[in-house]
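TL;DR need structure tokens for one chain.
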Amino acid sequence: MTRRTLAALLCAWALALLSACGGGGDEASQPPPQGIGPAGGTVTSPAGAQVVVPANALAQTVDIQIAQSSAGAPALPVDLSPAGPVFAFTPHGTAFGAPVTVTVPFDPALVPAGATPSLLKTNAQGQWEAVAGATPSGATLTGEATSFSWWAAAMQGPSLQVVSSNPADAQGRLSFSSVTASESVVNGVTTVRVTAIGTTASGLPARLEIDFEQSTGANPTVVFTWGAGSSNVVYCTAATNPCAGTTVVVANSTSGRIDFSGQQLNVGGSPVGGAAQLSGSIAYGGANVGPTIVTQPQNQTVQAGSTATFTVAATGTPPPVFQWRKNGVNVGTNSSTLSFVAATADHGAQIDVVVSNSVGSVTSAVAVLTVNSLTTPPLNAVRIAAGNRVSYARANGGALLSWGSDSGEALGNDAGGARNAPGPVLDVTDAVALAQGYGGASHGLTIRANGEVWGWGFNGQGQLGNQGTANAPRPMSMKDAGGNVVTGAVATSTGTTNSLVLLADGNVLSAGANKGDGTTGSRSFAAPVPGLSNVVAIAAAANVSYAVRADGTVWAWGDNTNGALGDGTETLRLAPVQVSGLTGIVAIAAGFQFAVALDANGEVWSWGANARGQLGDGSAAANRLTPAKLALSGVTAVAVGIEHAFALMSDGTVRAWGSNVNGRLGIGDTSDRRSPVAIPNLTGVAAIAGGNGHSLAVRSDGSVWAWGENVSGELGLGSTATRFLTPQQLSGINLN
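>> reply
TL;DR here they are.
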């Protein structure tokens, strides 16, 4: 017989236990959800269950509901008895950045005098566990948690449920205050008697005796003796202890846990009252063992806004409970994990956990939580950029230079015609950063000293964000939908027909095509990409865009024909999706239908198109739909062109791979490379960029070097010689 069936019997035979019966069912009418946002608030159910959410525990509004319902909840363990209803706090799994206070009512009629029930909640594995530090007040229990689940009050320890058809008899849960064992030897056979003494729910004394034999061979029959003063009495009084009773076979084992659920009470082989049943269990044999920690919590370092999770694993009998501490102060709930959601700098702390059971307790090693502040690329990070046969450079003083093709007014000098040596971009003398350029782009962007974004060149899809689609022969300010100049920028990136802007608050704006807002078409102003926040790096390419969040994950949207989005598919995505399997990423660069990412360990990942070996993994596979790591380490920056890529090493040298048409890899020949190779004689490099068919580098001494295709003078060497297979220094230019 299940506990719910037993509860139904209790309802039929004893109205006094009606509240216990309600614990297994659902309320006929549940209260509607209540929206709780970052300001916090309180939600209370008609039955008296309550949650208090502190300020800043939630990043956004959540519709919270408390329902008196066990629907979908796991059954209580056999050594626990309900002391009140089960409550569902939903949405299940809701995580809070700070502990919330949960209050659950219980039925005092189900709790023996002087006893206190335990506050229970279900964990992420769907198991009931005790909430450490829960406090009683009247007929309620209050504890703290950082996530939602089912909650209930229950009695722990050996207990039985007894039902009799005789109203004068004891009914309800039996709670035992002590359990002892004694041994006797008769004819060489050792018999162990386990005796449990306590009270019934109505306060009558109760005694349970369990006998089992310790012998060799087959498992002996385990029996228990239940005292009976008459055929309908199912408890023993103090005067009759120890009491004679009847034997009922329940198990064949010498140790373990006897489950009494559904057992029939018998006297002389006949059922007591025709309907008496037991429900519950008791452990016997073996010894309880104190907790042992088998896996210690580990140090965690995360970016602000991401989640830090600590985990501990422990053994013990009975199963241990957990109390997490931050700087010695209790936090969290009874769970083997502790999470800080949307971590902020004030979470930096020493974290440990006290693991305990009825035998004893042990404290874990201290794990350190380090939360790094939200970081964005330094404004002087992008000093050179290469596009579609055009090149850009920014001098330390803030002047902008351009050379190469003027297709689409890409030079920004309002003159028309290509030039084969560096010349000024008009109107901007206070630039602090160039856009990270895509090799096929024919427009440029820059951030000015006041944080404004200005752009020039091709504007057919409105990618300059100046509220028009005419090409801009000289720089113009980027604007939002209301005509306000975009400001607060810390990084920009140019694609073929789109532009991205990263703001200091971690939000991302897009202009032109591939907007990332779930719609097709283009727009001629800058607007936020929905769903992106805490972004620290961006990259735009040919109808594909990328964003790296502070938690090290990468998000992408747009054309996915060759798996450029890295989500395991080739499905077009009009809104950001997460790139599969990447964490700890700090920088990203995008080429034609492929991308290269750099992680915090100085290692490189790539995915997407691979026809020319641009993924750098040594394979000849046409595409790869998810990221894979390259055989590179010690990398400090990555850059890509249309179909080639570079890694800047910590020693100032450069590795190159991919397409080598016209010598764009700078290694002295025109053969493609499917794995990274060193560019000879190029040292002391501080920054690198890849264009359509050419490449650029800046050395730490400020000198600029170029190689590859040069039909439009994009190498800036003063000529239009077709190509140069190795790096050449530009004359008359120094960016320091």
